Amino acid sequence: MKINVKNAELAILIGMAVTIFCAGFCGFEESYNDITETVFRLHILANSDSEDDQQLKLKVRDAVLAETSYIFEGKASADESAEAAEKSLAEIKSAAERVIRENGYDYPVRCEVTDMDFDNRVYDTITMPAGHYKALRITIGEAKGKNWWCVMFPPLCLPAVTNIDEALADCGGVFTAEELDMLQNPENYECRFYILEFIEKLRDKICA
Question: Does pTM surpass 0.70?
Fold first, then answer.
């Protein structure tokens, strides 16, 4: 049986290209997973989208960041931060409730540490990729309004932090050079993010 040399060479080249792509993509997926596992987020959901409720959400944010920052001091990982938040939910809830009452509302507040999905979120000079993250979630009232979020670990929350780039530099060792590049230059990874998102959706359908 005759073998078409050109076709054989093409098959070899395609195989090499696929192998190289898969090797590179596996490295990218590992870095992506490291980011989602390294970060502990804060998520605050307003009662509604009215201007007053949105302003109240920001006041709750300011109080929580100012009055409970001691809870997260010295924490070396997302897991440690999540554990500290879990143990201090009563204090966090108390800070939120006080602000709500001082502003003339009686909305109930729920505070919990949970695993939740986030879309891509631009945050000052970085973009946190979509994915499943552990988060401190605070819901106000009916929780039907726009949300506010930030990163509690590493400590990047605005307005507690005034410069994200400086804060990232102070967090040396938390993110690798590639992970930092993914956060600061997401446009260079759009195709791989899209493929990864497709794979995750496919996995969810298979496992459902």
Answer: yes
* Mean pLDDT for the chain overall: 81
Q: What is the Cα 185 distance to its own chain's centre?
A: 16
Query: Where do runs of H (alpha helix) occur along the chain?
Result: 5-38, 51-67, 78-87, 89-102, 164-170, 177-184, 190-207
* Higher per-residue pLDDT: 20 or 94: 94
The type of residue at 121 is R
Cα–Cα distance list, 81 to 2, 92, 204 (Å):
65, 13, 28
What crossing angle do the helices spanning 5-38 and 177-184 adopt, rounded to 10°?
A: 90
CA distance 103 to 46: 14
**By the 8 A CB rule, do 34 and 173 touch?**
no
**What residue type is 95 in one-letter code?**
A
Q: CA nearest 80: which of 167, 153, 137?
A: 153
Q: Which of 136, 126, 132, 130 is nearest to 83 (CA)?
A: 136
How many angstroms separate the CA atoms of 158 and 85, rounded?
18
d(CA 92, CA 112): 10
CA atoms within 13 A on the CB side of 155: 18
pLDDT in tens, 9-30: 544 444 444 443 444 445 566 6
According to DSSP, the residues that pair with 116 across neighbouring strands are 133
